[in-house]
Design goal:
alpha+beta, 4-stranded antiparallel sheet, 4 helices, 11 strands, 24% helix
């Protein structure tokens, strides 16, 4: 396997930037080939997604109308995280903000590139259990609905397409796969079993 970088960057251009991402239009050559434009989105934050598991084996989903998609979506709690903070700190904050939950136990399940051909966006997925309830405090532009469902129902929502948010899909399916393989802590397996 050759993992050498075949790309040569001849010129970098950033025609647009905002607090969340920038758009790059670079002039590149691949493996000594002809120069060409390569356009990409470079994120200034990464995504976190959290599957909270309560003592009955249920998980809390959050729903909201997504402006860019122009439709309502169901997702696991999560949001954008700054690169200068540990991912777990951001996951804890998002869980508390969107559900009011605090958790005694955390396990990272996903560390993924979202669309590596066009964006450097990353997504980190966690499962949280040993939950304590609290008051949700979402951001002003987050008009969230909450839905407590058995874990198996959340999986069915993924398979039917009702949950289509990639971070949510990845962390839910990863949790299920590790459960089937017996790769989770025993107390969490017992909750989900």
């Amino acid at each position: 396997m050759d993992s050498t970088n075949p790309w040569t960057v001849l010129h970098k251009d950033e025609p647009f930037t905002c607090p969340f991402f920038s758009v790059r239009s670079d002039l590149v050559a691949h493996a000594g080939g002809q120069p060409r434009a390569y356009n990409s989105i470079r994120t200034k934050m990464f995504g976190v997604a959290v599957v909270p598991v309560d003592k009955r084996g249920c998980t809390m989903l959050v729903g909201q109308y997504r402006y860019v998609l122009d439709r309502f979506t169901w997702e696991v709690p999560g949001g954008g995280a700054r690169y200068d903070r540990p991912p777990l700190d951001s996951a804890r904050e998002e869980l508390s903000e969107e559900t009011g939950y605090r958790a005694d136990h955390w396990l990272q399940l996903v560390d993924a590139c979202v669309a590596p051909g066009t964006s450097d966006e990353l997504s980190k997925g966690f499962v949280a259990w040993g939950l304590q309830s609290g008051e949700a405090h979402p951001e002003p532009e987050e008009q969230l609905s909450r839905r407590l469902v058995p874990f198996a129902e959340a999986l069915s929502m993924v398979l039917s397409g009702e949950i289509s948010h990639l971070g949510s899909v990845a962390v839910l399916l990863s949790l299920h796969t590790r459960l089937v393989r017996g790769e989770l802590p025993k107390d969490l397996e017992k909750l989900l079993g």
